[in-house]
């Protein structure tokens, strides 16, 4: 699975980011990162969703594009899906529909 | 080089529509019936639904009815509404455009109003069909950009690709406008650093702070459920993606809806009303944003969508740039550009160049996907603004 000749599955947008973006449906298990490296993804995620690039403590800023995009509301283990269930905006709350809030979990 | 229709005020249009404008919701049906047989020929419905007087609505309707893409205007009034149809008709007449007002209560009701209106529209379409395009420079072109139905792909593919197209358009003298200050929350500092002057930078920051306060009062951000379904978790994350549409050019000014940018360059449109929260959400759906772009002179709009919007617009063509490759596979007929292919190896530069080239082709008459499918959405609601300050347009 760590064959680097295959296309990357997770996008690292900036060196300081603590999340990576799924470039398509990513199954659980080892996933290739742009620019090299592998991250073990905890459970399947869908295109455009984020996974933790490392362990993130509760209250820590979530960093994407090199800038904070909110704060962790719980401890997030490396490889976990990072979304509205474990992070929040530092500005206004995020509105979701219960029927579609499972989005991003590919299982 | 592009080609457009020369108007009396010196601006050039890239389309030659007959606008049929209802001046209160009660006149909308008559306006729609008038347009129905002439949709293919270029007649389109715009209008304002409210019955209470409102300066913003009056200004917006004046700007839209004298938009360079409009060649003639039929106003449809019920008769008892508060909208000042006399002032609007006078502004249109002064612009050199043919204008007529039908007052349903005077004309004898629905059937006679529709018949009179259709006769007038048919005659104008016949006249406009003889107009010829003339050469138009890129410095005469105004391009807006919005995004709608964003997701985790928007900030990686479609939005930065539009940013590259914007950089090139601005570099060649065009006027480019980006907007939705409520979707720039979290980007204030990086954006202010791009302002032409420090004073303008402070105005840009203030406009986003105003948006943050306004949305905080409402209790919702400019964030829809579908954004989260597609991987966006917070308004700041969505903002970073939306901000990428502005490219990297210097920001030359801050305008409000209906203000015409004075010269080529890059402008931010402040769409959040001034003063206390009065009339609800700043823009209730994507077409409200597009209507404001048009009111500030945008000839066309670059619309980045990821979940998959299908809309177009009355008056000004919409080029839809699809950020998400899975969405493109399902909705390709509704899309003009497949920016999602960036995820599978195409370069941002290549897609940015495609958007630039398509902008020029559409300006010269090529129909967009939404035009071909007959889309001509339009919406306008109440707002109130104070005039922009002197620092907003440094010379």
UniProtKB/TrEMBL annotation, chain A:
Pfam families linked to this entry: SAF
Highest taxon above the source species: Bacteria
InterPro entries (UniProt xref): SAF, SAF_UxaA/GarD, UxaA_altronate/galactarate_dh
GO molecular function (one): hydrolase activity
The entry's keywords: Hydrolase, Lyase
GO BP: any one term: D-galacturonate catabolic process
Annotated SAF domain residues: 17-88
Protein name, entry field: UxaA family hydrolase
Organism (species): Stappia taiwanensis
Taxonomic lineage from the root: Bacteria, Pseudomonadati, Pseudomonadota, Alphaproteobacteria, Hyphomicrobiales
